[in-house]
Amino acid sequence: MKNLSLALILPLLLAACATVPITGRTQLSLIPASTMLALSNQEYGSFLQQNKLSNNRNEQERVKRVGTKLQAAVERYFRSHGLAAQLRNYSWEFNLVEDETPNAWCMPGGKIVIYTGILPYTKTDAGLAVVMAHEIAHAVAGHGNERMSQSLLTQMGGMALQSALGSHPEKTRSLWMAAYGIGSQLAYVLPYSRLQEYEADKLGLVFMAMAGYQPSEAIGFWTRMMAKSGSSHPPEFLSTHPSDTARIRQIEAFIPEALTYYRNQKLTTHPLQGGEKW
């Protein structure tokens, strides 16, 4: 029976292999991009209906200002690498919700939410750009699809997303929300893998630098988050984004490369070409 199960699952895994458009890393991707975008639009709309948008006009404008600059940088980056088709059906949105939880996330299609609780850690436009660029990087690198695919395979026997939604809607939606770090007290929340985190850190630095933000601001932000993580109630953001001194060293090591994008504010060389391992 074990061999039979392996024989049934192995073709599925081989057929579902995809390549991260940024690093060339092979990843599991069971869900078509069109399905991810459709579900993203649905769940994003539901989230906004169920959560209060911030009435702080200045901070709302800050989120939209920083988000718009990052959107332009991401689109320019993808065009420069012949990957514009990957973003063709994106419909970017940037919203600030009233919630004391220090958190932020980006669904497929550029659907971004910032929680007011993370603003004391970001402090400035550049600090906010660190968070938003990092979350955008997770989305465009397909990390959510990868995490959702792994959950469907391990917890639902490789069931197709639409079938899972039909037969186990609540569990499937919980898996979806957990895949993007949305909400708290989710039974299925797991940290992004270290490799996914490094991909998002490095690519996020490139995006923010191309948008005109000093990449070294990332050190201050993650240091502040790491200091909070030592308290009895670490930020929700760190439940899916583990922060430690080794991670900060990795960011510091990449900043000189990111600075070339900041100085030029245009694409020069691809920093993550060839499936680099970290």
TrEMBL record:
Q: Name one GO cellular component term.
A: membrane
Annotated GO biological process: proteolysis involved in protein catabolic process
GO MF term set: metal ion binding; metalloendopeptidase activity
Under InterPro entries, the record lists: Mito/Outer_Membr_Metalloprot (IPR051156), Peptidase_M48 (IPR001915)
Answer yes or no on keyword Zinc.
yes
Report the co-factor binding details: Binds 1 zinc ion per subunit.
Q: What family, per the record? A: Belongs to the peptidase M48 family.
Q: Which PANTHER family match?
A: METALLOENDOPEPTIDASE OMA1, METALLOENDOPEPTIDASE OMA1, MITOCHONDRIAL
Protein name as catalogued = M48 family metallopeptidase
